[in-house]
Amino acid sequence: MKLIVILAIVAVAVADKLPASPVLILHSQQTNPDAAGAHSAEFESEDGIKVQVSGSQGPTGGANLIGSYSYPLEDGSIASVKYVADENGFQPQSDLLPVAPEFPHEIPEFVLEQIAFAEEERKREEREGRL
């Protein structure tokens, strides 16, 4: 099930990049689940899309997956994502993903002003007996 969801995400991510004509699949291989639940799939298309995933049955019965996918961007560079999907959820790794700034970081002045204003309002309401 997770494999289907992941492949659907990949399909949506590259759908607007697909040409109007059919794209040749250069390589496609799939290993169906064995007795232990191990499975894998991979493919590569002529337009540069590559998908690889392998998995096994997790301890709670769900699928544990490890995989990657990549596709060419308009500027000619390659977008790559590696991931693990298991009982801890989908955990992607990619230079494409936003990264939060390290903390502590400088707090913008407008944020400090809003905090001060909210504190003043709280004190005023407290004095007026509304809290």
Brief account:
This protein has 131 residues and is α+β, with helices and mostly antiparallel strands. It has 2 helices and 6 strands, in the order H-E-E-E-E-E-E-H.
Throw out a few tags for this protein.
131 residues, six-stranded antiparallel beta sheet, 35% strand, elongated
What does this structure look like?
This protein is α+β, with helices and mostly antiparallel strands and 131 residues long. It has one domain. 25% of the residues lie in helices and 35% in strands. The chain contains 2 helices and 6 strands; from the N terminus they run αββββββα. The protein has helices spanning 2-15, 109-127, and strands at residues 25-31, 39-45, 50-57, 63-72, 78-86, 89-93. The chain has a 6-stranded antiparallel sheet with strand order 1-2-3-4-5-6, with helices on one face. A hairpin with a 5-residue loop joins strand 3 and strand 4. The longest helix has 19 residues, at 109-127. It is elongated. The protein starts with a helix and ends with a helix. The mean pLDDT is 86.
Number of strands: 6
Q: What is the string of SSEs from the N terminus onward?
A: HEEEEEEH
Uncertain residue segments: none
Question: What is the overall number of helices?
Answer: 2
Please bin the fraction of helical residues: 25-40%
Within the largest sheet, what's the order of strands? 1-2-3-4-5-6
Beta-strand percentage range: 35-45%
What class, by secondary structure content?
alpha+beta
Can you tell me the number of structural domains? 1
Radius of gyration: 24 Å
Q: End-to-end span in angstroms?
A: 51 Å
The overall pLDDT, averaged over residues, is 86
Main β-sheet: number of strands, strand sense, barrel status? 6 strands, antiparallel
Shape: elongated
